[in-house]
Amino acid sequence: MSADQEDMGHFDTNGELVGISLLRPARTGNAFEETLASLLHAIRLGVFPPGSRLPSERDLAERLGVSRSTLRDALSALQESGHLVIRRGRYGGAVVTGNPPKAASEQPTSNAELLDAVRFRSVVEPGAAELTARADLSARERQSLQTAHEKLLQAGADEYRLLDSRFHLIIAELSGSPSLAAAVAESRAQTNKLLERIPFLPANLNHSNEQHRVILAAILGGDAARAKAAMAEHLAGTEALLRGFLQ
User: Fold this and answer.
1) For 222, what's the count of Cα atoms within 13 Å in the CB-facing half-sphere?
2) Alpha helices (H) in the chain, listed in sequence order
3) Which of 107, 174, 176, 201 could form a disulfide with 132 if both were Cys (CB 3.0 to 4.6 A apart)?
4) CA angle, 112 as apex, 107 and 113 as ends, to 5°?
């Protein structure tokens, strides 16, 4: 087998890539999260076994339908989480570690638990964003939302998830429906328990901040449809990460 073939990943006895079809183009605006989840899935299924090199950046980016920059962010995140080692030089590349880490929780996440959390959230939070965008917000209410967003942008890793929850909860509180706000609070509690089991990824933080900006602009601009769609896309990114790390 040539060095070029080895760079392409794991081959079977016929020289064909095993399971490479698992790496499919990102389907939503969450390119980083979907790329990360796809690579994690392939690693966990043994498509890329311990010690093997992933395909070249060019081939991976083409297969996943993402930019080289997005792919590098995902590879860097997987290196930070302990799943890959990035080696430089002519014979370098992204190498799967011999003993990839498991989720932080001692108890595995069941499909039912994860599905319940993401389905519940996918219903209540986009609805809350839509209602808040339709609401006649006072100057004080608008400022409270902007302040929460500004604090989130300045947050460090140790406080980001807490302030992230606060931003989402304020959106729900401003919807005008106490029942919906309570449902969003319950949803966030479920989601945060799952998020605590996966690594904190700076690249995901940057993407989330940009999505928060879009959500905020849609709400303050009174664009209910955009607010609902932007929130749904934001939640889809989190779902992709959770599925990638926990399933």
Assistant:
1) 4
2) 3-7, 31-44, 57-64, 68-80, 111-134, 139-153, 160-173, 178-195, 202-220, 224-246
3) 174
4) 50
What one-letter code names the amino acid at 221? G
Domains and CATH numbers, the chain: 3-96 (1.10.10.10), 111-246 (1.20.120.530)
User: How far is it, in rounded angstroms, from Cα 121 to Cα 234?
Assistant: 11
Angle made by CA atoms 74, 205, 106, in degrees to the nearest 5:
75
- Scan for tokens 């890793």, then name that residue: 157
Provide the pLDDT for residue 17. Answer: 43
Categorise residue 16: left if φ over 0, alpha if ψ from -120 to 50, beta otherwise: beta
pTM of the entire predicted model: 0.74
**Ranges 39-43, 99-103, 105-109: which has the least confidence:** 105-109
**CA-CA distance, 93 to 70, in Å (whole number)?**
16
